[in-house]
């Protein structure tokens, strides 16, 4: 019985609050199906759920919607705790001073994770710039580069990068995978 009570409490809590937006009851008569033929008017990067332990990130282009669930920087790295004044950056050892879009897309080339890139967008970049841009996509997910390699040395100097994961392929969005292919193709042609 003592194991059933926490489960029952969780279910009742979810059921009780499941029909609320914030503290407001949802009026079921106001809910209807919504269809949109032209998503281009909604282009941008949208973040939902800030502060609840994870976020839904939507990137809307003129033809595609990319959705990704991301962890917040909540307590251990300074997200809500710093924003709300509960902790300060120096107390938790975070060197990163910003919490805007650069928190989700840090680095020199955030556009590689935020929009579909074309050859025209990239034509002015050098082969070295393209290589850094492509690898920065992996670095945003704290990819572990080969120890002592040029990219390992470069990203170890970036305050936002941490060596955590040997494989980040499961984190990459279709937008990022497409951009990796586009960048790689241009790198090979330079």
Chain-wise SSE layout:
Elements lengths: L3 H14 L2 E2 L2 E2 L18 E5 L5 E7 L4 E7 L7 H5 L5 H4 L8 H4 L6 H4 L4 H4 L4 H13 L10 H7 L17 H16 L1
Antiparallel strand pairs: 1-2, 3-4, 4-5
Helix pairs in contact: 7-9
Structural commentary:
This protein has 190 residues and is an alpha+beta fold. Helix content is 37%, strand content 12%. It contains nine helices and five strands. The strands form two sheets. A three-stranded antiparallel sheet has the order 3-4-5, with no helix packed on it. Strands 1-2 form a two-stranded antiparallel ribbon. Strand 1 (20-21) and strand 2 (24-25) form a beta hairpin. Helix 7 (127-139) runs antiparallel to helix 9. The longest helix is centred in the C-terminal third of the chain and has 16 residues, at 174-189. The radius of gyration is 21 Å and the shape is globular. The N and C termini lie far apart (68 Å). Residues 4-20 and 72-99 have low confidence and may be disordered.
What would the average pLDDT be, to the nearest integer?
75
Biggest sheet record:
3 strands, antiparallel
Q: From N to C, what is the helix and strand string?
A: HEEEEEHHHHHHHH
What is the SS-derived class?
Answer: alpha+beta
Q: Terminal Cα separation, in Å?
A: 68 Å
The count of β-strands is 5
Proportion in β-strands: 5-15%
DSSP helix count? Answer: 9
Helix content: 25-40%
For the largest sheet, list the strands in their spatial order.
3-4-5
Cα-atom Rg, whole angstroms?
21 Å
Unreliable residue stretches:
4-20, 72-99
